[in-house]
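help with this:

***
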Amino acid sequence: MNKPFDHLFDTIETKETDSGAALFSRDKARPASSITKHDADEVIERVIRGWSGLDRRPAFVVDTFDALPDEIKGHADDQGAENEIKGVFHKGKTYLVLDMLEDSADVERTTFHETYGHYGIRKLFGKDLYARLGEMYVALGGDRGIRLLLKSTALISRFIPAGVGNR
């Protein structure tokens, strides 16, 4: 993608592996305070309560990066994301890293993004996921179309810093 869109993907990292893709929500800064594990679990239960098609609870809270499964930590290390992961969707499960989550809104956003976003889009498109996303990119008009979409929805300032590219 073009330089103006570098920030669009700063918080999302993907690595396709033999064992599936490891999809990360990243944040380099730890919050000054963190939500409790009990409160995070309650938020997850409230968020997923109405979701259909779940055969089991899709999201789990771990205390720190070190408590993630070794395979995820290896993928994170390969991508330079060690200790920057807020949430990760891997092998059909979402893991939320407690010491990277600030409050209930952060837990809700990360749960929704990782589970509903990554799991949901895979359920929708299946093995054709990357082909369909490529089609969507072309249908939107490539970089220019994405820029116009962001601008029309007032999201452009969130993803593209002021003064970068043609806004």
Notes: The longest strand covers residues 20-26.
